[in-house]
Amino acid sequence: GAVVSQHPSWVICKSGTSVKIECRSLDFQATTMFWYRQFPKQSLMLMATSNEGSKATYEQGVEKDKFLINHASLTLSTLTVTSAHPEDSSFYICSASEKAGVISGYTFGSGTRLTVV
Amino acid sequence: GENVEQHPSTLSVQEGDSAVIKCTYSDSASNYFPWYKQELGKRPQLIIDIRSNVGEKKDQRIAVTLNKTAKHFSLHITETQPEDSAVYFCAADLSGNTPLVFGKGTRLSVIA
């Protein structure tokens, strides 16, 4: 089945630094990529939606200048957490949609646990 | 936009008993309802899904029912086992390129 590879699986960074998270669709073209954040014992909260070749759409309350999303190709989307702070520590996970307008199921990456110290 | 409510937030059952988790949604246009199981630190795993043209779907010990009129759907797990212990999320979706809206999750504990 469809596979989304997400890296890194975990990262520890110092406060003020930036971290890049990558999601690659390995055997299909991801026309749309969704980025979620999950705090401990909470649900997955949508951060932004990105479509290949266009700017990402951010959810209310998510700072687009802090969470930079790039979806430059149909197989790669990246999320960069800039000037990270301890409150950004969370589990970040991407989900790809294979076909626009067709519900074919969503494929999740394996997630990235970010810890900012 | 869509809003998904999930109950209960925690559920403890004895091994072998059944577990039922219920979700309601607000947008009548939603037509895809997946259920995910998430173990600690791992990605959500799709366990079953149902589309709006179907009222019930079953896969071995897991079943999902959908009532479009009432806008609610439920997950049923029979003959629960300790390995069923996890957090379960329901979700609703409008189309293939809109994001899933998740419920808040149910922490299921199966007591041996």
Which helices and strands occur, and which strands form pairs?
The complex is a heterodimer of chains A (117) and B (112).
Chain A: E1 4-7, E2 10-13, E3 19-25, E4 32-38, E5 45-51, E6 57-58, E7 67-73, E8 76-81, E9 90-97, E10 106-108, E11 112-116
Parallel strand pairs in A: 2-11
Antiparallel strand pairs in A: 1-3, 3-8, 4-5, 4-9, 5-6, 7-8, 9-10, 9-11
Chain B: E1 4-7, E2 10-14, E3 19-25, E4 32-38, E5 45-51, E6 56-59, E7 62-67, E8 72-77, E9 86-92, E10 101-102, E11 106-111
Parallel strand pairs in B: 2-11
Antiparallel strand pairs in B: 1-3, 3-8, 4-5, 4-9, 6-7, 7-8, 9-10, 9-11
Give a verbal description of the structure.
The complex is a heterodimer of chains A (117) and B (112). Chain A is mainly β. Chain A is built from no helices and eleven strands. Helices cover 0% and strands 51% of the residues of chain A. The relative contact order of chain A is 0.33. Chain B has strands at residues 4-7, 10-14, 19-25, 32-38, 45-51, 56-59, 62-67, 72-77, 86-92, 101-102, 106-111. In chain B, the strands form two sheets. In chain B, strands 2, 4, 5, 9, 10 and 11 form a six-stranded mixed β-sheet that branches. In chain B, strands 1-3-8-7-6 form a five-stranded antiparallel β-sheet, with no helix packed on it. Chain B is globular.
Which of globular, elongated, flat, extended, rod-shaped describes the shape of chain A?
globular
What is the global morphology of chain B?
globular
The multimeric state of the shown protein is heterodimer
Percent helix of chain B, as a range, is under 10%
| Derived structural class of chain A | mainly beta
Number of DSSP E strands of chain B:
11
- Unreliable stretches covering 5 or more consecutive residues of chain A: none
DSSP summary: helix tally of chain A: 0
Mean pLDDT over the residues of chain B: 93
The whole-angstrom Rg of chain B is: 13 Å
Are there runs of chain B of 5+ residues with pLDDT below 50, and where?
A: none
The gyration radius over C-alpha positions of chain A equals: 13 Å
Greatest contact between two chains:
A-B, 28 and 23 residues
The biggest sheet of chain B amounts to:
6 strands, mixed
H/I helix tally of chain B:
0
Residues in β-strands, percent of chain A: over 45%
**Mean pLDDT level of chain A:** 90
Classify the beta-strand content of chain B into a percent band: over 45%
Provide the helix percentage of chain A.
under 10%
